[in-house]
Specification:
The complex is a heterodimer.
Chain A lengths: L1 H29 L9 H10 L11 H18 L16 H22 L3 H32 L4 H4 L10 H20 L27 H26 L6 H25 L8 H20 L1
Helix pairs in contact in A: 1-8, 1-9, 2-8, 3-4, 3-8, 4-5, 5-7, 5-10, 7-8, 7-10, 8-9
Chain B lengths: L4 E3 L4 E3 L5 E2 L1 H13 L3 E9 L7 E9 L4 E7 L5 E2 L9 H11 L3 E2 L43 E6 L11 E7 L2 E8 L7 H4 L8 H6 L6 H16 L5 H29 L3 H22 L8 E2 L2 E2 L5 H26 L2 H7 L7 H7 L3 H5 L7 H4 L20 H22 L19 E8 L4 E8 L5 E7 L1 H13 L7 H8 L3 H5 L1
Parallel strand pairs in B: 3-6, 7-8
Antiparallel strand pairs in B: 1-6, 2-14, 4-5, 5-6, 9-10, 10-11, 12-13, 14-15, 15-16
Classes of the chains: A mainly alpha, B alpha+beta.
Amino acid sequence: MIFSIFFHLLILFGLAPLLAGIIARVKAKIGGRQGQPLLQLYWDLGKLFRKRMVISTTTTWVFRAGPLVGFVVPVMISLLVPFGPVAAPISFSGDLVLFAYLLALARFFTVLAALDTGSSFEGMGAAREATFAILIEPTIFVVFIVLARLAGDFSLNGMFVPVKAGFNTPAGIATTLAIICLFIVMLAENCRIPFDDPNTHLELTMIHEVMVLDHSGPDLALILYGAAMKLMISAILIADLLRPVTADPLLGSLSFLVVLIILAIMVGLVESAMARLRLIRIPQLLVGTTLLSFFALIMLLR
Amino acid sequence: MSATSVCKNGGILPLATIPRLTSAEFAALIKTRLTEGARLAACLAVPEGDGDASFTLYAVLADDQGGDLLVVAQKPQRQFDSLTPTISHVHLFEREIGEQYGVKFAGHPWFKPVRFHAPWPGGSDGWDRDPEIHPLVGDMDYFTVEGEEIHEVGVGPVHAGVIEPGHFRFQCYGEQVLHLEISLGYQHRGIEKMLLGGPWPRTAMQIETMAGDTTIGHMSAYSMVLEGLAGMAISPRARALRAIALELERLANHVGDIGALAADIGFLPTSAYCGRLRGDYLNLSAQLCGSRFGRGLVRPGGVLFDADKALLTKMRQTLEAVARNTRGAIELFFSTPSVLARLEGTGRVTARDAYYLGLVGVAGRACGIDADVRRYHGTGSYLPDEIPAMIEEGGDVLARAQVRRQEIEHSLEFLNLHLSELPAGELRQVLPPLAPGCLAVAMVEGWRGPVTHVGLTDADGRFVRYKAVDPSFFNWSGLALALRDGQISDFPLCNKSFNLSYCGFDL
């Protein structure tokens, strides 16, 4: 148990910044640029952890708690998720509810920390984040219900297994829809284009980035690391479903990694190929995604 | 009408021949001309220097249909009634004059400082601020909306991007902007004041930095004013070189703007390519005169740098490759559905608002205002029949982007034509002394819009007043209106679609 937790976290801590690096590299290549090194985020984190922090005198302990919770939560939820052939160290029936609400807890503290600064920018970002989170949550739950029903298991470990059903069966169609929903949720949850632009410097258009403007040094490193881990976990959920079925643990691990990298490349491609949505259009897309997830459910219930 | 004095672009009028109207006649004449389709190009006050502290008001109107510039003057007065309630176009000019000379305009609905400097003659100013203390930039009463759910967002003067300083205050209801007030003046250097008694040897350098990205535009206008006052005509070759430089400046900025729009909406390919291509156009300017921004190319009397056959061939070849890439990047931008969805309907300015604010240039043409100095007041290389109307009707970010696209296409064709063969002529001729007691007006269609310069000389041929109007002076009000009832998250995109000059406004 202890060993498996340790192994799980090792994979998480080790690989999370690489995924972000792959996305950045794909975007750079398509834009005709050389791009930053694949391992840039590791260096950035190292640099930030060595820095001092500047903390506004108007803030309270909540401001410090935001990044901390934002870092701890992805670590905790990763323990509930199987990493391909590596089973989740902690698993129990109904852990999917814990998963969803730990994510909500992290968001709650990020929003509070943003409001704590008293800045009008951060207040706007907090309002946006809270609004969009409400719209993402139904999709996550409906997708979970679909997968739980398909697998006949109420734990993430049992639900996120390779798809065996053929794509022309109702179960296959439901899974396909669920995967599409999960991909959109991944983009929305992790503030990627078309929902948010992680590279923008324009505070007025930001959603997530604007909430962390006042953090610096190790706190900022925690936020960046936490965000990278959250992105990796979102991608792992999809990769778990898409990875080929194999009994060989080595081949299974390798194919799982390949699927993960392909997902990162796909995120990079989406970000290169399309522009951001207008902020008022985002709810429409999120509600549409929820509807899509309901269709998946209907496919199973009819 | 006998009450107006008419000249052509770059022309000159003896001050004595300009009739002085009463303020009622002055207002009525401007109003009539504006409703007939003329545009207000500039408005300025000139102190009479009779110890009486009275001022003569001048207004320059551009009559596009006749290709004429009309100059109207008002009898010297000490007290002024504001014309803004009936002629909204002059609202900012009256505030400017109020600040420059400490004159109050009775009945002005929005009488606030513009650039936050002490009045030129000294003494008390239009707002009775302490003359001993330099006014603090941005220190004025802002319009506020009150209510439980209203919040105020202040942006600037220090920005996240590497741009110029300006302060923006939003009154918001949630994400909706009820009102945006823009307060500038942080870049005020007092160029117009420094020009009094000029021209000086250093004046050329000051004009070139009025708005650094419009170096050729402002410098050409200044040179035309001086050439007009000196009564000389520059050679066709110098004219052609100025036109080439002006179009290169336009290309660099428009291509850069499209790239910046793409960056704002997170559309990477066009953003990355246009950023590089802008550099290529700047480098073409550098091939011509050694400066990427065209500094030191245009001087009164002609130009300082020649382009021989070999250089022209080289520039044409470079341009050919760059033009191909530009068209590709722009084509991709305008054929991507997510881009069009993002731009369309964002930051709309109605044609009515555009008319009453007197929007000019790219922003004006995007609202369907067919005004273009090259088209209607063209001189030299800009023959009227060469320039099509590059207008759009939408008034939104998309329309402003498409006007730029049309202009890029036109500029590329223009350069292709003019780079092949330059007319002969002397590069630079000596400037004769300036005519005394005269007024000269020059307009140049810079990349943002018309750059208008007006110079008035005293009995010795020195400047008694020099007025420069950057298109940004009109268009900042347009940006404020574009945001009204819009989304606050659309502000950066709208701002980029106008891409106005801070220093060109602040002077």
